[in-house]
From TrEMBL, chains A, B:
Cellular component, GO, one term: cytosol
SUPFAM superfamilies noted in UniProt: Winged helix' DNA-binding domain
Name this polypeptide is given: Rrf2 family transcriptional regulator
GO molecular function list: DNA-binding transcription factor activity
Transmembrane segments: none
Pfam families reported in the protein's UniProt record: Rrf2
InterPro entries: Tscrpt_reg_Rrf2, WH-like_DNA-bd_sf, WH_DNA-bd_sf
Source organism of the structure: Alkalibaculum sporogenes
Length: 130, 130
DNA sequence: TAATTACAGACAAACACAGTCTGTAATATC
DNA sequence: GATATTACAGACTGTGTTTGTCTGTAATTA
């Protein structure tokens, strides 16, 4: 369970999408200005969110990005996983008798974190602001 | 809250120390063979454990390493922190209105994980094996 | 004094991450 | 159908972190 800068961007981007829901497509350039990131870099993050089916994109003149998944159904975990992938972090390489026990405790710990992130919706953030 | 390879080594090393408690000092070379790491690299990890007061070292002919902290009082978190330091991972860099809310949820999630790791003792691993 | 041990710090290789650049594909408007 | 506008794909670079090695130094015992 990593938490890179890109993930941090993604969380803020999704919060913004939820806030803007119902309005026109958001296109890359304005979004980049608002987020204060370079458009090309932002593009890479958005593409990952598209592939995870959290947002959708339409090319062409009035194209851009918009929410795809219902705004109340998007958890923090969804967003994080969209960026980080399901990279197995806690993998065991040791071949000792106690190895799997150590690994298990680490996995349990991670699961506690993951469960928390699955319960929290990005929509909650928007609610707290209004 | 990182979990590097060095941390993984440290967990296994400490489990081994707990298992061997009461016996003579463990010196670098045999420990390295048992762990299947190079002695010099192992040395760096052990030194960090020494600085964290989890083990103690004595140089000289019959020297080596042995447990310092009581074996039932060593948590997973103690060991992880000895290696990773208290590196603040979830830091917020965005200057948006909802920034701190996102940060808070991430910190809460990490705390869930950390609490789990504080509750689990490395001694539990040894118990499960006997 | 000599052997044995741990310790310190510089060093290099490998990898991951952040961010850029260039070109391509799809859609709408005229 | 041509053109402008949009997103998409992939190579590329720079930087920082991690892993691991090498060399030499300090402390303790025999």
């Amino acid at each position: 369970m990593k938490y890179t800068k890109a993930t941090n961007y993604a969380l803020h981007i999704m919060a913004y999408f939820v806030k803007q829901e119902g309005k026109d497509n958001l296109s890359l350039q304005p979004l980049a200005s608002h987020m204060n990131i370079s458009p090309t870099y932002l593009s890479k993050i958005l593409t990952q969110l598209v592939k995870a089916n959290l947002i959708q994109s339409t090319p062409g003149v009035n194209g851009g990005y918009s929410l795809k998944k219902p705004k109340t159904e998007i958890s923090f975990y969804d967003i994080i996983q969209a960026i980080e992938g399901s990279g197995a972090l806690f993998t065991c390489e040791m071949n000792e008798s106690h190895a799997c026990h150590i690994e298990k405790i680490m996995k349990d710990a991670e699961e506690k974190m993951v469960n928390h992130l699955k319960e929290k919706r990005i929509y909650d953030i928007v609610l707290k602001m209004s």
